[in-house]
């Protein structure tokens, strides 16, 4: 089930009681960020927020926390809002396997309504604001950015759609942080090796399915648009950019077209990141914006990011877990049961697996470290038995507390790669990684006293049914 | 000209005026590229109250690490 555009999804949220409109006047700072951080503290079923009365603005409209809860994530997939997380995971995994679904092309889009090519001033066009107190400026952090591979522009999947933080650093200038593990870093390097600017397009206010695909760690040559089609179960609608051969999401509110300036680096940051720490200030590439178009009275979508959990964690929880799950299943198709890589974007990953023989679970853990996402994340991998639900942390803690023998089951692998934003990495981008094997030893590993696992009294399943009916 | 609360250069310029007259202005420092709104709390707008851990010395800016490094031209 596809959402027509961003507004269509907001309407669904409203119908489902998952959109809270704040009509009282709020200050751009610190109210917008504070309200969102406060909302994140109120549990995992929170609504999106819609602000329409912002001090100093006449008609700014800002939507936040659009995917910041499990009900909103379920609605993104067109599922009932109370769908349990584990069910969302397995449904996402099922749709992931429908990839690729080719795109549907359109000639025009609603965002063609208003076009600006002269005297662009992003500070006037967009209701920008500060998120965290130490941020170096105002950021776009829920915009998708589209670019192409210059060596192989005709391979569709190598067109990249990604989510990157972008600091607004001038009327028509953005700073971008290209983490080396991410695809945009490859495109920028290709362009700079040629001494050319890299054409890019940025879309703000998109339906959540493309944001989800853009933040999924797909393989380099897999198309995010074709994955968005798979997730929504019908072809994703795109329209061509005007200044470059790039596809844009048809349902976006605002489009910025521009180019990464070859060989330029400019001071950027700090920015309060998903790790719960600020990134430092560093010199990063610059994007010059040449063209803006947007819907009349556009809705500006923004995301509060900071100390977990925030919208970011709901947005990249399931879609980070599923690629790891699929890649591990490629290696061990009969064993892997489920993967929970929801903690700080997969810096911690929990894998539920069957074990074929002694030592097997440690091999599963090491495979996780060598998956594309694992190369930049997966600092701590916890492996649990098939009967342990990796999304149920009390069960995971039970496995750790009873199955793990530190002498045998804690494995540290030195000197591996990690994303440089990990505040514990030293030097930035390097770390040791750890596997905790919390599975039951099997032959020839004969350690421990595990021959008498606790069973349930007879008839528990029947009583579960009976009592749940009585409790309705 | 305004003083940048972060690097204390005096070259900051107004880049945006509030659509509602005189509510606020957005300022941009061309030295450290800090951006702020005049209606923000004084822990952001006042150079004396800006958090010391986040202060920037203009002399350090040219030495900031390049992320990513600029590659050799092919
Ligand atoms: Zn400054």
TrEMBL record, chain A:
The answer to whether keyword Membrane applies is no
GO MF, one term, reads: metal ion binding
Give the note describing cofactor binding and stoichiometry: Binds 1 prenylated FMN per subunit.
Q: Which reaction does it catalyse?
A: 4-hydroxybenzoate + H(+) = phenol + CO2
EC top class, as a word: lyase
Tell me which residues bind prenylated FMN: 160-165, 181-182
**Which parts of the sequence belong to the 3-octaprenyl-4-hydroxybenzoate carboxy-lyase-like N-terminal domain?**
10-87
- What are the catalytic residues? 273
GO BP terms: response to toxic substance; ubiquinone biosynthetic process
- Family, per entry: Belongs to the UbiD family. YclC subfamily.
This one is known as Phenolic acid decarboxylase
Organism of origin: Paenibacillus polymyxa
Which lineage ranks, top first, belong to the organism behind this chain?
Bacteria, Bacillati, Bacillota, Bacilli, Bacillales
TrEMBL record, chain B:
Q: Which InterPro entries match?
A: VdcD-like
Matches recorded under NCBIfam families: VdcD (NF041205)
Q: Which Pfam families match?
A: EcdD_BsdD_detox
Q: What is this protein called?
A: Phenolic acid decarboxylase subunit D
Source organism, top-level taxon? Bacteria
